[in-house]
Amino acid sequence: MHLLTRLSLFFGAVLVLASCKNTPPTNLASESLIPKPVSVTATGDAFELTSETILVGDAAFAVLADSIARATGFDLKFTEEASPKSGIFLTLDSVDQDLGQEGYTLVIEEDKITIKANAPAGVFYGAQTLLQLISKPGEQNKILIPTGTIRDYPKYEWRGSMLDVSRHFISVADVKRYIDLISHYKMNVLHLHLTDDQGWRIEIKSWPNLAVHGGVTQVGGGKGGYYTQEDYKGIVAHAASRFVTIVPEIDMPSHINAALAAYGSLNNPDTKFPKEGNYMGPAETRGIVDGNSKPTDLYTGMEVGWSTLSLSKPATLQFVNDVIRELAEITPGPYLHIGGDEAHVTKKEEYIKFINHFTEIVKANNKTMIGWEEIAQADIDGNVIAQHWASEKHAAEAAAKGAKIIMSPSKKVYLDMQYDSTTRIGLHWVGYIEVDDSYNWDPTTRVEGITRENVLGVEAPLWAETVVNMTDIEYMAFPRLIGVAEIGWSPAEGRNWEEYKIRLGKHGRHMEGLAIDFYRSPKVNWSN
Ligand code: TNX
Fold first, then answer.
1. Which among 27, 64, 249, 418 has the fewest CB atoms less than 10 Å away?
2. What average pLDDT does range 477-494 have in this prediction?
3. Domain ranges of the chain
4. Does domain 158-493 have CATH number 3.30.420.40?
5. How far is CA 351 from CA 309, 316, 400, in A?
């Protein structure tokens, strides 16, 4: 071959390669979506999103349309008239019943993008997927979105996280941001651990000192706080607009010192107050002395399982009933969580009586009771839900009694555990949990005696003994949480760490776009 021909072929190849490199991706199947959709079919072209693109949908989707517009950086127009030929369409449609109430299809063509779902939640989830496909505007102020079809629906109905707002109080604004983040990853439950030894964080009008005094401090002795019922309703409404159900937890009969510190009438000799870490609180908010019954001190340490309610105190059941009634009144969601964990100083017969009473009273308030797996020791049945965290025996026993199970195995999904020995905050009583550990497990094979039929879904709790602010929350939750979101949403078949870690590495840029302060695990090759 002539030298010039050879040279031109060579440079031609270089040019082709170079232009490939500069061409924005048009392969929908290679996008780094989390959770991974059920099916993705790529058609190899691109939709050009510009400042002229119109968003089309029912007025109910205005907020969603706004979130899409904001992600593009353009001031996109939203219209309810379904007339334009081109644009992004958010539509309710009952064509594909197999998608259920949360599934959707996202069809991206060269001239339009259509999200279709049977119910609003599905449109919301379709929009979350679209948001992950929107990058910064490139040359000529265009965003190219690869064409194809995504058909998607969740594996489990319960996909949640928990925030412990007792050990350290978390502001309403931070809780709302957390809701925004978990819902972006298609989680639909936020469990709020509202009370514990160190702080009572929800206003109860019939027992005002619970929050006023019981909420005054936190682990380490700093200023605590509590949510007024109006604050709480605001959180519930914010969550509802993102299809997240708030599950409030009042942890009883143990983990209850904040209440014992507020009302002497609840304090009792079974409680064994630890020697360290006590705090009286400002004089004007002291706990209420009732006859000879003195309240405990507030507690700012980190020990667990040493406090208890007691049936020997006449005020106890009145307290329980009032708290559950008020909480039910301000909670539109169907669930109330009564805790029930680590009742180390509660006598076993009394523990069973308590759980049986909680079951009855939650039911009388028309809610479904949830408790940590220890509730299996009481007379529970298929009307309650048990949350697995440590004891496979108790979890399997709860399943055998007919209870549905929320899977929160501490060795896998406890977001307060350190990633490794150098993690600046966190505990390690179950060991270290790296990003691969929290991804590599399956809810249906984890516990002997618990199968697919028993499992309601997954939940990743973030306990907050060492977690003080939003930076800490994001650092401990991300990226482990989004792997758990994928376990909850995506099909188990074909799910594996080797594939996920590459997708996660590329997805890091998207988390940066959301200003998430995530942990850059050395097990992942972050692409930026
Ligand atoms: C166990 S999990 C607890 C919490 C602690 C957590 C710390 C559970 C039901 N109880 O009280 O905060 O460990 O990791």
1. 27
2. 97
3. 3-152, 158-493
4. no
5. 9, 13, 20
